[in-house]
Amino acid sequence: MMAVWIQAQQLQGDALHQMQSLYGQHFPIEVRHYLSQWIESQLWDAIDLENPQEEFKAKRLLDSLIQELQNKAEHQVGEDGFLLKIKLGHYANQLKVILCFISV
């Protein structure tokens, strides 16, 4: 089976614009791109959004995503990697703020 993100990269026209509109400031498309394998390997459906007791699992998953993003940022090298390191680090910090906000 082809990975979801690989399929998404083949979209064109209106389908591509619709997919792009799903990503914004709260979940940048770069995060989706660079963490695609990790994201697709997680058990997102195992969290019952209607059950408040599942909140801890959701926060732990978000914390893991932040850690993966920080690891990805730290391992960027070279001229192209410099800007990517800054961007991914920035996104990790943004997600940390969200995690702190929802932990209150």
From TrEMBL:
<dbReference type="InterPro" id="IPR001217">
    <property type="entry name" value="STAT"/>
</dbReference>
<dbReference type="Pfam" id="PF02865">
    <property type="entry name" value="STAT_int"/>
</dbReference>
<dbReference type="InterPro" id="IPR036535">
    <property type="entry name" value="STAT_N_sf"/>
</dbReference>
<dbReference type="InterPro" id="IPR013799">
    <property type="entry name" value="STAT_TF_prot_interaction"/>
</dbReference>
<feature type="domain" description="STAT transcription factor protein interaction">
    <location>
        <begin position="3"/>
        <end position="103"/>
    </location>
</feature>
<keyword id="KW-0727">SH2 domain</keyword>
<protein>
    <submittedName>
        <fullName>Signal transducer and activator of transcription 5B</fullName>
    </submittedName>
</protein>
